[in-house]
Amino acid sequence: MSLKQLEIILLGMMVFVLPSLETPKTLFWALYVLVFLIRKHRDGELWQLPSAPVVLALWGILLVSLISTLMNWPIENGFKGVFDALRYISLFLCIYAGGYTDKDFRNIALAVIAGAIAGLSFGLLEVITNVVSRLQFHSAGVVTQSAIYLSMVIVLTLGFIMQCRDLTKAMRGVLIAVLSIMAIGLAYMGSRGSLLAVFTVLGVIILANLRWRVVLGLLIGTGLIAIASYFVIKLAPQNILNEGHYERLSVERFNKADNERVEAWKISLAKLASGEDVIWGIGPKNFRSINPSDLGIQSAFYERTGVIHHAHNLFLTTLVETGVIGLSMMLAFYFLIFIRLYRSRRSQLDSGAGWMWYAGLGGFMVPIIAGSFNAPFSGEFAMLAMILMAMMYVSVDTNTAAGALEDH
Hints:
By secondary structure, this protein is mainly α. The chain contains 14 helices and no strands.
């Protein structure tokens, strides 16, 4: 077994347990990065990693995270923010410079899909046994973060079904069933931001494939899943056995969540308006240190919980925690990903690797749209997003290089 093959195995094991098991995913991530570095050192390429603009933007995000932490030291979460950034940035860099094949990426994608189904089953078991009151992954954050993770896997699976040319009819049928289960699971989670993100991505996919069979198939499939989701939600509403909790898809729960979200936005804007910590922020994962009363704001949510973890908007959270510099680095990275997606859309969709373009589209759009109302870019869904966007980036580079050779 070669070191590169070992890397693929470790990466596949990591993405399989990513939404469900805390310690194993960290262990597999560390081993994967270690084996990658050993291989690059053996081949004399350790100090020859790519210096493309997207790579420099990622190094900038990591550096800003470290500087912001040190400038605000000591902070409650210590270097957790830096470690979080290191995890998802290292995954993009390793995949980008890994020299992996399309077959490797297909195996990783299948491991992602299998891990999501296993994670959903585990989450459903926890709901049935009253361990938790809401459907979510065991180790991918709360419901909103789990929904973002699942939404990206749904887009990946859809792209796989539509564009992967090596699938057998049996495998395609299995993936359609899996996609349906995941979509119903997403509706059952009831995260409106993630649902909005999926429907927006679906709209982009339809615009990119203006063929009546594709459009009709997507519309019929969406309608059938919506009907099935309606009956599942009606037959098994969540939180009905938990006093003080609202059913997930209820007006009361939506109003409560919206009020908390608006409060978090007001606190963020008040913090920025104070003019303090504008350049480097207050430190990554340090939003929780803000006391709304210090800003002249009375927050019912803060009075009830004693802490607000983030701004319920990834851009506001980034701006407050890592300042103007941190937000600039994030926007630069997103801009480079958008440009790559836009310029490669036609060539990629006409190739056998088109499913990786869909994967990158999901990794790009879902966290931005859902994160504008929910969670900051961090944790397990950030790791998955980086994997998907890196796969897209590599596939575009590979097809571009292949096209250049054909021209000669």
